[in-house]
């Protein structure tokens, strides 16, 4: 059943489209927060802590979210690689080992390219963390830990609210990792900012 407050298919009074947009995005975050399973979240953070190498596999709009995960996590010193080309993903997957972690991001949980890459990674012995709306989906079934977004209907794939729900979990995982690993994120940010400012002319 479509979530009316998330999609575009709602009766919007003239002049309130900006309010409808804000409500849609806020609702995506609030609904995703309600779906957080604390046990699954703890396991996901533990996987991040223990991983030797971390890869993000996804395509399309979820691939754009994966690139944002990569950049966001770099700010807390968590180095990852977001790969959105399924041909390169499958090659990476064959080289992984038991201490590696692959994070599969798919709004629907039914994206074949992502599924194939995750399946090959699991076959190689890597741990799998999945982020999707459907916990019974083929992609979620591959997960050693699974997190759920609130926006999942195919009509909403590619929507801003869908990506916002994914990015909310990106921030949650970053904060959980930083807390458990005792990361001084402020110090890392200051070092990065100093380096960036050095690029100014």
Structure description:
Helices cover 53% and strands 11% of the residues. It is α/β, with parallel strands linked by helices and 201 residues long. A 5-stranded parallel beta sheet has the order 2-1-3-4-5, with helices on both faces.
Please outline the helices and strands.
Elements lengths: L16 H18 L3 H13 L3 E4 L2 H15 L6 E3 L2 H10 L5 E5 L6 H12 L3 E6 L5 H4 L3 E4 L11 H21 L4 H13 L4
Parallel strand pairs: 1-2, 1-3, 3-4, 4-5
Helix pairs in contact: 1-7, 2-7, 3-7, 4-5
Shape: globular
Order of helices and strands: HHEHEHEHEHEHH
Give the helix proportion (percent range): 40-55%
Oligomer: single chain
Radius of gyration, CA atoms, in whole angstroms: 18 Å
Brief descriptors of the model:
alpha/beta; 11% strand; single chain; 201 residues; globular; 5-stranded parallel β-sheet
Quick synopsis:
The protein has helices at residues 17-34, 38-50, 60-74, 86-95, 112-123, 138-141, 160-180, 185-197; strands at 54-57, 81-83, 101-105, 127-132, 145-148. The protein has eight helices and five strands.
